[in-house]
Design goal:
The complex is a heterodimer of chains A (239) and B (317).
Chain A (H helix, E strand, L loop, with lengths): L3 E10 L2 E11 L4 E5 L6 H8 L7 E6 L2 E2 L5 H7 L1 E3 L12 H9 L6 H14 L15 H14 L4 E5 L7 H16 L3 E5 L3 H7 L2 E6 L2 E6 L1 H4 L3 H8 L5
Parallel strand pairs in A: 3-8, 3-9, 6-7, 7-8
Antiparallel strand pairs in A: 1-2, 1-4, 4-5, 9-10
Chain B lengths: L3 H19 L3 H27 L7 H18 L3 H23 L4 H21 L1 H4 L5 E2 L7 E2 L2 E2 L6 H23 L1 H11 L1 H6 L4 H27 L1 E2 L1 H4 L2 H14 L6 H19 L4 H15 L3 H13 L1
Antiparallel strand pairs in B: 1-4, 2-3
Helix pairs in contact in B: 1-7, 2-7, 2-10, 2-12, 2-13, 3-4, 3-5, 3-10, 4-10, 7-8, 7-10, 12-13, 12-15, 13-14
Classes of the chains: A alpha/beta (239), B mainly alpha (317).
Chain lengths: 239, 317
């Protein structure tokens, strides 16, 4: 059974169909890259899976159990965590507190939550920055903090929304390595990303969406040569 | 933690207990009781507004509900106002549940506006439901039931019992604030204040956290309303449901210091004494100076007087 199954997912905003009959599945342990041109509906898909938006129609199943209609906190409780494309730290709270708040989900007592928070912060490389406010971190560090916060909820499935967007090449390298480490630890990951080099290297499989529809689904090296994908990104070749 | 930390509250409580022995003048005692009532209200508002950052402009609704509950239970059912006050708080908290579930569908300024509307609705209900509330005529208590410590009946014509009653309520609200600040719920509220979507995404049931806190806040506000009714022995819709009352609660919490235990005391002392002073000095237009002071305080002390002082102290160390 796939860990996550999305079937015939559709979402309309007024007259605009942002996601149109999208179906895909994610197998346990996979890193699935979700790509597509700007406005393709990638972030909307994340918002639908995590309960920030309700599907107009369609099914979303985690280990065979529907997530549709659950509020975001309940989806997180079921084991799906996410990061945001535009980072949303708790800016005036310390880095440690940011992660502790997430760890409370599985550790109701503060000392246990703080210990768990410290572990995930060390894992993402923020072990030396625990006490300062989150607003003092660089963008790359804030993206790591978001990952730490998501990990602290002990998810089965992690949705990363552009974890490399806006980073320097060096920071992209580090972030790729981090995603691979998290994956090696047994987590299943869906990755929305525009940095093609990174996504092609670390994804096991890539799903391409365009105007809310799936236009390709396969291993990265195969997808990049797909004429439909090339047309979506560069425009169709004039006849 | 320094030694001063546990000693300061003890000293504050002792000073609170001793004040009526020093201030025998009825006017000062009345002023002190007024400060206590506003401290209670500021502290109650602060639970939701300070910690969760949810700015309610409608807390007069809970104040009025508490006041009317206390008065009606006494006048119609003969229930002593001491129980009535507690029930006033509970009815306020119960009313907060549906109000919260409706208003918390909205965020930010839209939430604030919806609370303003709710308070107006409640005021209009109180004004027009004459069988229950006596409408615009209001409700009047002529005599309070005798209450006595063994062998020593309390003198309700004196202000001293009210002073101690108010002091007890304020201490209760401050203990509740302190407990909230140390609890998981308190931590969740700060997360909600910082970023509601992020809070939801890490598994915090934000609606539930906000509704529970609104109910707690409404409980203390309702107690304050009951206290007002018993102290002044008269309530009418204009006295206990005005928008100005809601706004004053916001000011006290903001000027004193949001999400702090001691802030509302400072805010209440400042604003009550300042209000009296301006009223005395400038018979006409005293509200202009009051408003001007508010603007200065918000511009130059965004963390409130308590927060600003704490920061200044920390910087000197």
């Amino acid at each position: 059974m796939p860990l996550l199954e999305v079937a015939e997912l559709t979402r309309d905003f007024g007259g605009l169909r942002a996601v149109a009959g999208l179906s895909f599945a994610v197998e346990p342990g996979e890193i699935l890259g979700l790509i597509g041109p700007n406005g393709a509906g990638k972030t909307t898909v994340f918002n639908l899976i995590t309960g920030f938006l309700r599907p107009t129609t369609g099914r979303i199943l985690l280990e065979g159990v529907s997530l549709v209609g659950l509020r975001p906190h309940a989806v997180t409780r079921r084991g799906v965590a996410r990061t945001f494309q535009i980072v949303k730290p708790f800016p005036r709270l310390s880095v440690r507190e940011n992660a502790t708040l997430a760890a409370f989900l599985r550790h109701p007592a503060r000392p246990a939550a703080e210990a768990a928070a410290q572990r995930v912060l060390a894992e993402v490389g923020l072990g030396a920055k625990l006490e300062g406010p989150a607003s003092d971190l660089t963008l790359a560090e804030q993206k790591r903090l978001e990952m730490a916060r998501a990990l602290a909820t002990r998810p089965k499935l992690l949705l990363l929304d552009e974890p490399m967007g806006g980073l320097t090449p060096r920071e992209v390298e580090d972030a790729s390595a981090l995603v691979q480490r998290i994956s090696a630890a047994g987590l299943t990951i869906i990755l929305v990303e525009h940095v093609m080099k990174a996504i092609m290297r670390i994804s096991n499989r890539v799903v391409v969406i365009h105007h809310g529809e799936k236009i390709a689904d396969g291993p990265p090296d195969q997808v990049v040569r797909d004429p439909a994908v090339i047309a979506a990104y560069l425009g169709a070749r004039p006849a | 933690m320094t030694l001063a930390a546990p000693i300061a509250p003890v000293l504050a409580v002792l000073a609170l207990l001793a004040l009526p022995l020093v201030a025998t003048n009825q006017f000062y005692l009345h002023l002190a009781i007024t400060v206590l009532m506003w401290t209670l209200l500021g502290a109650a508002w602060n639970l939701l507004g300070g910690f969760a950052g949810q700015v309610s402009f409608g807390h007069a609704a809970f104040f009025g509900i508490g006041a009317y509950t206390t008065m009606i239970l006494y006048l119609k059912l003969g229930l002593a106002p001491w129980y009535g006050m507690a029930l006033g708080g509970l009815v306020g908290a119960l009313a907060a549940l549906p109000i919260g579930l409706i208003c918390f569908r909205l965020r930010g300024p839209y939430f604030s506006l919806s609370t303003l509307a709710v308070a107006e609705i409640v005021r209009l209900v109180a004004l027009n439901w004459e069988e229950l509330t006596n409408g615009p005529v209001g409700l009047l208590i002529t005599t309070l039931p005798p209450v006595g410590l063994p062998g020593r009946p309390l003198n309700w014509e004196s202000k001293v019992p009210f002073y101690y009653l108010g002091a007890g309520l304020v201490v209760g609200a401050m203990v509740a604030t302190d407990r909230l600040a140390r609890s998981r719920l308190g931590a969740y509220l700060l997360a909600i204040r910082e970023d509601e979507d992020a809070a939801e995404s890490i598994g915090i049931d934000t609606v539930r956290a906000k509704v529970v806190t609104l109910a707690l806040s409404a409980f203390f506000t309702g107690l304050g309303g009951g206290f007002y009714g018993v102290y002044f022995r008269y309530v009418d819709p204009d006295a206990v449901f005005p928008i100005a009352l809601s706004v004053e609660m916001v000011f006290i919490a903001v000027v004193g210091g949001l999400a702090t235990v001691g802030g509302p005391v400072i805010g209440a002392v400042f604003l009550v004494t300042l209000g009296e002073l301006f009223r005395e000095r400038f018979l006409v237009g005293h509200l202009i100076f009051y408003g001007l002071f508010m603007m200065l305080a918000i511009r130059y002390l965004p963390e409130g007087i308590w927060g600003g002082a704490r920061r200044a102290l920390a910087a000197r160390r």
